[in-house]
Write a structure and sequence with these properties.
This protein is 26% helix and 17% strand. With 192 residues, it is of the alpha/beta class. The chain has a single domain, classed as Rossmann fold (3-Layer(aba) Sandwich). The strands form three sheets. A five-stranded parallel sheet has the order 2-1-5-6-7, with helices on both faces. It has a two-stranded antiparallel sheet with strand order 3-4. It has a two-stranded antiparallel ribbon with strand order 8-9. The protein is globular.
Length: 192
């Protein structure tokens, strides 16, 4: 399946993008995020939950619908199926290559997960919204991996493909207020 982002790549493709060593992890260029999302096909979701209301569940479902292979990792549910995919106890239990290790755990857990990601030969360590561990980022970068912290690949994919730009994500503003109605020209109006 061709990604909606593939036509939006800068000339030279993701292999020409600079690596993340020495990167400011408070902000990422669209080209950096786009390069990861267009060049990486397999995500391992560490901390994936079978509970449908959990963010890892709907992020996994969304990325699978976009053509990514997503492998759930959660020792509490190992051996069970999640969205048709076998849940693994650890990253080491996954057969075959993993491009991105997506961490749905707390910031303290990011360091041991990053060590596992390095051990399996992952290309990227991605820490979810609210997850930041600068020590883990440095360890990953020193091992040659790209790093993204405090971001969600589902949101970034939707933002870069234009699917969710209309709700303000392209302005780097996420608003959880319920819309009152759409105004003229599709403008979203909110209650005061």
């Amino acid at each position: 399946m061709k990604h909606a982002l593939s036509g939006l790549l800068a000339p030279g493709g993701p292999e020409r993008l600079a690596d993340s060593r020495g990167m400011n992890h408070d902000t990422y260029s669209d080209a950096y995020i786009r390069g990861i999302l267009t060049s990486c096909r397999t995500f391992a979701f560490v901390g994936a939950s079978p509970t449908e209301s959990r963010p890892s569940y709907f992020a996994m479902k969304y990325l699978m619908a976009k053509g990514f292979r997503v492998i759930p990792v959660n020792p509490a549910h190992a051996g069970k199926l999640l969205l048709g995919q076998k849940i693994h106890a650890s990253l080491a239990d996954i057969e075959g290559p993993v491009d991105v290790v997506d961490i749905f755990r707390n910031s303290a857990a990011a360091l041991p997960v990053t060590r596992e990601a390095i051990a399996i030969g992952a290309k990227v360590v991605w820490m979810q919204l609210g997850v930041r561990n600068d020590e883990a980022a440095k360890l990953a970068e020193d091992a040659g991996l790209k790093v993204v912290m405090n971001r969600c690949p589902k949101i970034e994919y939707g933002r870069l493909s234009g699917e969710i730009g209309w709700v303000g994500v392209n302005r780097r503003l996420i608003d959880n207020r319920k819309p009152l109605l759409f105004g003229k020209g599709g403008t979203l109006k909110h209650r005061a």
